Amino acid sequence: MLLERAYAKINLTLDVLRRRPDGYHEVDMVMQSIDLSDLVWLDCRSDSEIVLDLNAGHIPSDERNLAVQAAMLFRKYTGIRAGVQINLEKNIPVAAGLAGGSSDAAAVLRGLNRLFDTGLTSDELADMGAEIGSDVPFCIYGGTAIARGRGEVLERIAHPCHLYVLLIYPRVFVSTADIYQALQPTDFVTAVQSERMVQALMEQDVDAVPYLVHNVMQHVTFAAYPGVKQLADKVESVTRHPVHMSGSGPTLFCLAPTVQQANRMYNALRGVMRDVHLSHFVSNISNSGDGEV
């Protein structure tokens, strides 16, 4: 049995350029992996079934789950017919703007590549993952990247900047599709923010990065879900620090340059609200399998 970690991501920038003829939106965003992760155990079965067992009863375990879709796609591409057992421990909140499902799919692809010793490169796995979802290619590699197109065209970035991430989970379900549909032409941009963010990361400017975080969808989600906006205002009043949203939400986050500051913010928030998690940036994960268990 093999263990793969499926790391969550946050958006350091998210700009939408236009609505594409295929119905998707053209985006330009900086994505960053953080150490909050689901745990994905993989093993062969004696039959030919793909079976997913997980610790969250409200999540489907059939073909609607991206982890199962990833296993099906892997077998289609490789011609492998062996059964696959997937045991999934969910720690990343569902539908939270943290790419939990996409990261699970990426972990399955990476893990099956090791389990069956198929020798596929990360680039090949990323191309495969793009058929499942726009965030899956990024989740194959992890670390930091500028994502363009639908999110599947990646420019990977290696930088020395390490920041701590305070995550706050509003207990609200946000529909990504609805938020994208609510975008107006005035929300589309021509001047993207990714290059400024990457420059600050490369220069290790930990003081500037939190103030360069940008998400064009944040005001749309806040308008559609006033409770998320109210929570963001409360977090900002407690931390006296910029509060941001990842993806289409609803997860909120603050960035801190030191573990001491992060702990102070964490302790202050824990005194007044639930669902606060302390995390940090992680770098390239495409070759970081956790081995056999």
From TrEMBL:
ATP-binding listed as a keyword: yes
A Pfam family annotated for this chain is GHMP_kinases_N
Which pathway does the UniProt entry assign to this protein? Answer: Isoprenoid biosynthesis; isopentenyl diphosphate biosynthesis via DXP pathway; isopentenyl diphosphate from 1-deoxy-D-xylulose 5-phosphate: step 3/6
Q: What is its EC number?
A: 2.7.1.148
Protein keywords: ATP-binding, Isoprene biosynthesis, Kinase, Nucleotide-binding, Transferase
Q: Name one GO molecular function term.
A: 4-(cytidine 5'-diphospho)-2-C-methyl-D-erythritol kinase activity
Entry binding sites for ATP: P93, V94, A95, A96, G97, L98, A99, G100, G101, S102, S103
Keyword Transmembrane appears in the UniProt entry: no
SUPFAM superfamilies linked: GHMP Kinase, C-terminal domain, Ribosomal protein S5 domain 2-like
Task: List, for all copies, the residue spans of the domain called GHMP kinase N-terminal.
Answer: 65-143
Q: Member of which family? A: Belongs to the GHMP kinase family. IspE subfamily.
Give the protein's function.
Catalyzes the phosphorylation of the position 2 hydroxy group of 4-diphosphocytidyl-2C-methyl-D-erythritol.
Q: Which HAMAP family match?
A: IspE (MF_00061)
Q: What is this protein called?
A: 4-diphosphocytidyl-2-C-methyl-D-erythritol kinase
Q: Which organism is it from?
A: Alicyclobacillus fodiniaquatilis
Gene that produces this protein: ispE
